[in-house]
Specification:
By secondary structure, the chain is an alpha/beta fold. It has helices spanning 19-30, 64-76, 99-127, 148-168, 195-203, 214-225, and strands at 10-14, 34-39, 52-56, 81-84, 130-137, 173-180, 236-239. It has one domain (10-240): NAD(P)-binding Rossmann-like Domain (Rossmann fold, 3-Layer(aba) Sandwich).
């Protein structure tokens, strides 16, 4: 299997306006993949070019997934890859969190992924092939104070990955996840002014001694989406600089 086994395929990438989503959309496009780049941020339209079609949509809203799938098929004729990258975080102790706070995180990180998996599987199962890659987290398994909502959403996403994987594989569709650690993105921008700096600093506490750049996680996503990962089913591949195996 060559490095360019993704060429000619069609992908949906959520939260593609920045960070890991943008890096993934551009990496896949550079390897010959036609991409529907979905994001609720209108900045995603800056990605428009031959082979990339932007879609401004909120992954948590019913109907957004169906629009993305329909756009992929209408524009490019198929749907071969789905990357569920959309995610938000909230830093609050449980005792200070409202129900709306908690549900807002799950609606994007878990429900949004579910909706896209569901609608993608309907197409992929019919065609007998496809790959779905969910962006999970070290927080799928480990926690620290103030990330209860995020950890709950990512823990659920890991199990959603496994459960959907055992249903999908009989139809020729592989479902896996990448468990990312600290990545220098804009995910904290709504909660603190120094979001990227904080992530970079927090990443220094990992065994590798630094946070990841979005392009590093995009490489793992592309691998999981490719035929080179043909025997991976329901895996959560950790790309967290060793965070999840260290007690320090």
């Amino acid at each position: 299997m060559g490095d360019n086994d993704l060429a000619g395929k069609t992908a949906i990438v959520t939260a593609a306006a920045s960070g890991m989503g943008r890096a993934t959309a551009l990496l896949l496009h550079g390897r010959g993949v036609k991409v529907v780049a979905e994001d609720r941020d209108p900045e995603v339209e800056q990605l428009a070019r031959p082979g990339i079609v932007p879609l401004v949509a909120d992954v948590s809203e019913e109907g957004s997934a169906a629009r993305a799938v329909a756009l992929a098929r209408d524009e490019f004729g198929s749907l071969d890859v789905l990357v569920n990258n959309a995610g938000i975080i909230l830093n609050k102790p449980v005792a200070e969190m409202s129900r709306e706070d908690f549900e807002s995180v799950l609606s994007v990180n878990t429900v949004g992924a579910f909706l896209h998996i569901r609608d993608a599987l309907r197409v992929m199962s019919e065609q007998g092939s496809g790959a779905i890659v969910n962006v999970a987290s070290y927080a799928s398994f480990q926690v620290f104070p103030t990330i209860a909502a995020y950890a709950a959403s990512k823990g659920a996403l890991a199990q959603l990955t496994r459960a959907s994987a055992v249903e999908a594989i009989e139809h020729g569709v592989r479902v896996n996840a990448v468990g990312s650690g600290d990545v220098v993105t804009d995910i904290l921008n709504d909660t603190r002014p120094d979001g990227q700096q904080y992530l970079a600093e927090h990443g220094r506490g990992t065994p590798i001694g630094r946070a990841a750049q979005p392009e590093e996680i995009a490489e793992v996503i592309a691998f999981l989406a490719s035929d080179r990962a043909s025997h991976l089913v329901g895996s959560v591949v950790m790309a967290d600089g060793g965070m999840s195996i260290s007690l320090s």
